[in-house]
Write a structure and sequence with these properties.
CATH class of the largest domain: Alpha Beta
Bound molecules: zinc ion
CATH topology of the largest domain: Glucose Oxidase, domain 1
Radius of gyration: 39 Å
Number of domains: 2
Shape: rod-shaped
Number of helices: 6
Helix content: 25-40%
Number of strands: 10
Order of helices and strands: HEEEEHEEHEHHEEEH
Structural class: alpha/beta
Length: about 290
Amino acid sequence: MIRSTLILLFLSLLVYQSQLVLASITVLATNETYVDRMAAFGPRIEETEDGLTGYLMAPLSPDLRHGCEVVEPPSDKWIALVERGNCSFIDKVRSMQQSGAIAVVVGDKYYNGWVTMYAPGDTSDIRIPSVFVAQRQYQALLQLSELFKQPMEVRMEKDDILTWPLLDMLLVVVLSPAVMMLFIYTTWRMRQRQQRKEELAPTDFVTKLPLRKFKLKETGNEDDTRHAECAICLEDYVDGDVLRVLPCKHEFHSTCVDAWLTGHKKFCPVCKFDVCRKEASENTPLLSV
Ligand SMILES: [Zn+2]
Ligand SMILES: [Zn+2]
């Protein structure tokens, strides 16, 4: 039960995670693709047709590499490549928008993990998309852009293979039946357990049934072997054995029949008499002592 829930949780987390990294930057000259993550604010790349093409470049002065101040755009169709830190994500995107950038790529210089750029408050003034890249992608893109003699042309796009509607469908197709199955299985198990309980005799009821000590001389009649052996373990009774007498007057080792009634079935192993039946005392058994 707990394990299934964990698997479901993990699955949904996986789907959720893959939704967040569904964007990429492709360097057109080398055709190399770098995975990035869309910011939580501003327009999404898919809102522009066919991705977004521009020239990826860091601000010209290294002092301004964090993109916290308004700068002169180094090229037309400028996609600003800025370093994480010194000011908030939203400040970077705002000042780059004011500097004429058509998009912003924020890179992490120190850590190799993705962050979803989030900004509190009103972000409706943001008209350009922005993405986050981890350390490895940032370093690669930065070095490449510095290596290029002319501005480095890149295309920013969302991944075509896994799109939002497809993932939503995956969520419905995979998760809903799983939840359904879990529900059906749980109710089935509960009903099974309930049924099993009804088939057994309660322990406190069984222990109240009469007991007696067996004495060898009782079975003087040689033919009446029924009373001389326990029908459950098939052992002959010996002097001093403790026998449990069921309402149907059948006797067994108390240890044998107690285990049978509380763990197997509430019926006498010989005549199938229901020991829990209310009218047990009134019912005359076929075989009596
Ligand atoms: Zn026995
Ligand atoms: Zn019986």
